[in-house]
């Protein structure tokens, strides 16, 4: 019997990354990469009715199986008392899906659906955990304890056996030729064909501080000859209309936005940092002021190598934005140097690397496969060469 995945029947891969775009996008990037390597692969996405799952996942052409969400309360409450029952119901639903699709491997990316996915797959189907942030979330901390492979975007997450793979990204980002698309991209958004362009975005939940700073800094930016493409978030506020200023609630074509831009002002979730570095854009990163501080850690390696600047949320006024952005965007040599430094920290091949690992583990030949098999056998669920894990 051949040992490579190409010699076996079509693999069944389940991805679990529901909730926010930061969990969904890397899961879908992995799914796309698996499909490129094995066009016959069966891919199923687990998600919830919350967040963007029902919008983003079907739009990318993948079947979505809904799992009851299991949000983990941060403080003692009635929700904490109801948690065990919620987990049990979600785990049972996960196992139903794994059986129905005859899953070979589960790849989880954190989020509401990841914990029940890991618990449902434990001892039945090999698990691959991917942690995007510098500080791991609770679901991935649990899943990493019995995963066949633990992949991380940046080192130092504290997860056992972590291996730095990078952040899986869409091919439209990793293969982007900014200079070749620059004229088309600026025409697409209605931006000036010449002169520097600042791209501003912060997501629907994290845009407020950025929006206020942009509104205050906009007159000074425009006087300096800097055009602005501003994604202010659904429900967020744009600055007053002005020539050279383009505002939109949401950018569908981020590839064109990156191609149009010379620098970025934004948050530093790991997806943002990974995309901005992959396309080689310098950035002023503004970490969200809540959470466990992982956003500042996400951007730290880029900032250390000179590819970005870190500004605290409380310090981002209009004056500070102008002080950081005008000297940068009016200095082509500095833009080039910072862009080169940013690109040097990226992992443009992360989706392909992770896809190969997932397929090898599904086939029983990759790193961690022995550990996965021992875990399955310890639960009395042996897998033959052409069988799939049972319930």
Provide an overview of this structure.
The two termini are 26 Å apart. The protein has two domains: 5-169 and 348-378, Glycogen Phosphorylase B (Rossmann fold, 3-Layer(aba) Sandwich), CATH 3.40.50.2000; 172-344, Glycogen Phosphorylase B (Rossmann fold, 3-Layer(aba) Sandwich). The chain is elongated, with a radius of gyration of 22 Å. It contains 16 helices and 13 strands. Helix 1 (21-37) crosses helix 15, helix 7 crosses helix 10 (254-260) and helix 9 (208-223) crosses helix 13 (318-329). Strand 11, helix 11 (270-278) and strand 12 (283-285) form a beta-alpha-beta unit. The chain has helices at 21-37, 53-59, 78-101, 114-121, 138-144, 171-174, 178-189, 203-206, 208-223, 254-260, 270-278, 294-304, 318-329, 332-344, 350-363, 369-378; strands at 12-16, 42-47, 64-66, 105-108, 127-131, 149-152, 162-164, 197-201, 227-231, 245-248, 263-266, 283-285, 308-310. With 391 residues, the chain is an alpha/beta fold. Residues 1-6, 74-81 and 374-391 have low confidence and may be disordered. The strands form two sheets. A seven-stranded parallel sheet has the order 3-2-1-4-5-6-7, sandwiched between helices. Helix content is 45%, strand content 14%.
Write the layout of secondary structure elements.
Elements: E1 12-16, H1 21-37, E2 42-47, H2 53-59, E3 64-66, H3 78-101, E4 105-108, H4 114-121, E5 127-131, H5 138-144, E6 149-152, E7 162-164, H6 171-174, H7 178-189, E8 197-201, H8 203-206, H9 208-223, E9 227-231, E10 245-248, H10 254-260, E11 263-266, H11 270-278, E12 283-285, H12 294-304, E13 308-310, H13 318-329, H14 332-344, H15 350-363, H16 369-378
Parallel strand pairs: 1-2, 1-4, 2-3, 4-5, 5-6, 6-7, 8-9, 8-11, 9-10, 11-12, 12-13
Helix pairs in contact: 1-15, 3-4, 4-5, 7-10, 9-13
């Amino acid at each position: 019997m051949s040992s490579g995945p190409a010699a076996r029947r079509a693999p069944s891969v389940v991805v679990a990354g529901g909730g926010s775009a930061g969990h969904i996008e890397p899961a879908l990037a992995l799914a796309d990469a698996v499909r490129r390597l094995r066009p016959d692969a069966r891919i199923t996405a687990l998600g919830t009715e919350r967040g963007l799952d029902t919008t983003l996942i079907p739009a990318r052409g993948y079947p979505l199986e809904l799992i009851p969400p299991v949000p983990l309360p941060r403080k003692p409450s009635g929700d904490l008392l109801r948690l065990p029952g919620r987990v049990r119901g979600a785990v049972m639903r996960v196992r139903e899906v794994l059986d129905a699709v005859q899953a070979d491997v589960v790849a989880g990316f954190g989020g509401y659906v990841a914990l029940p996915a890991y618990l449902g797959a434990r001892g039945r189907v090999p698990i691959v955990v991917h942690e995007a942030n510098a500080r791991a979330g609770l679901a991935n901390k649990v899943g990493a304890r019995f995963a066949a492979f633990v992949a991380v975007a940046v080192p130092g997450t504290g997860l056992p056996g972590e291996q730095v793979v990078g952040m899986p990204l869409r091919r439209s980002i990793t293969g982007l030729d900014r200079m070749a698309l620059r004229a088309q991209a600026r025409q697409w958004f209605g931006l000036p064909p010449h002169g520097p362009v600042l791209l501003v975005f912060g997501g629907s939940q994290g845009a407020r501080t950025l929006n206020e700073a942009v509104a205050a800094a906009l007159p000074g930016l425009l006087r300096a000859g800097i055009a602005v493409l501003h994604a202010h978030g659904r429900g967020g506020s744009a600055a007053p209309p002005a020539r050279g200023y383009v505002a939109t609630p949401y950018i569908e074509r981020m590839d064109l936005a990156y191609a149009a831009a010379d620098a970025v002002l934004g948050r530093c979730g790991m997806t943002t940092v990974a995309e901005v570095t992959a396309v080689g854009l310098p950035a002023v990163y503004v970490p969200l002021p809540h959470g466990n501080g992982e956003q500042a850690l996400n951007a730290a390696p880029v900032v250390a190598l000179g590819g970005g600047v870190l500004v605290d949320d409380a310090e981002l006024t209009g004056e500070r934005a102008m002080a950081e952005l005008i000297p940068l965007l009016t200095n082509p040599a500095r833009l080039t140097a910072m862009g080169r430094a940013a690109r040097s920290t990226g992992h443009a091949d992360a989706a392909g690397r992770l896809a190969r690992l997932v397929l090898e583990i599904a086939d029983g030949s990759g790193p961690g496969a022995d550990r996965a098999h021992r875990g399955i056998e310890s639960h009395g669920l042996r897998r033959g060469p052409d069988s799939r894990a049972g319930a």
